Amino acid sequence: MIYRSALKTLSVAACALTLGAGSAMAAGKTIDWAKVPEAKTVLFYPGQTSFEWIQTGTDHGGARSFTKKGDNCAGCHSEETADMGKKMVTGQKAETMVIAGKRASIPLSIKAAYDSDTLYMRFAFPAGPHNAVPFADGGKMDPDNEIKLAMMIDGGAVDKAKQSGCWSSCHHDARDMPSAPKKDALGAAKGIDTSHGYVTKYLPESRTAISLKDDPRGGWDKVKPQAELDALLKNGTFLDLSRFKSGKGGVSEDGYILAERVLKENAGATYTGKKEGDQWVVTMARKLKSGQPGDVAMEDGKTYTVGFAVHDDYVAGRFHHVSVDMRLGLGASGPDVEIKAAKQ
Ligand code: HEC
Description:
Shape: globular
Bound molecules: heme C
Oligomer: single chain
Order of helices and strands: HHEEEHHHHEEEHHEEEEEEEEE
């Protein structure tokens, strides 16, 4: 405690260097996380359960209630994600590329605070057992980054995002998914960058058609004309995405998802993170209203659907652990708000 309060008196620059993951700091402000209430969730291994999968009755027991009644994932699943993860991680359900030794779930602690212009988040989760062997040379798909932590924010305009969080962006034809197009077919899609050799996340609104059930499932190559995509971005039809990468001492990325995943380094949200004992502790600060395209403008008193993902064990792509939809309330409470951001 003495250590903490002494640090508060140091200069902004010194804080950034020494305080690291213990506190989020932006605009010279330090949050005392000990005073902020904690929300807990369990991230689970989702396998190949895509936007198309969750809406197809022969795949998913909850498809009908999700599509017809508007039920949300959390409503049926929030208490059982650890058990769900076991089914995909072992290949019992919706997974054709099993990673031996991968954990089924990861408990995640989430704290949030805000002031007149910034949202601060703090995440903590146990570091991996590292007995998983991803299928990559040397066992590491992303050798530079032991972990990555991502946060998605829905501004309210995206189809089914309020009910499903990240699932609106996860499709059956994305990288390593069952309907992923062959590399030499990728040039067929205009308006997205496929030069890296695969299809990234995209939103239903960015495509002219999406096949839920019939093969090939998804709609990767049915990209709407650029003028329509521009209009969607302008009117708030995107998922705000930011993430922390643990390599190089910690890298912050910020961007959004619409026709594809767009992420740039140091473009808004600022993350810090480090391993403290057997825990990873990651903090984030972002402007409530940045004015940047692809950033949700957040307001006091409002609630936002959010989703989280952790890549552990140096994995990449879809081999992550994810949350179901969660609600983040800025001064807004209520039974459905799991993450109550404390005003500072
Ligand atoms: C109305 C309740 C309901 C809703 C809403 C619902 N599900 Fe399900 N879900 C089920 C049922 C029932 C099963 C089948 C469980 C079984 O076979 O034991 C299931 C199975 C799953 C599974 C496979 C793992 C397992 O335990 O079988 C995943 C993954 C899953 N759901 C994800 C989701 C996601 C993501 C959403 C939101 C987009 C969602 N579900 C919405 C009821 C629901």
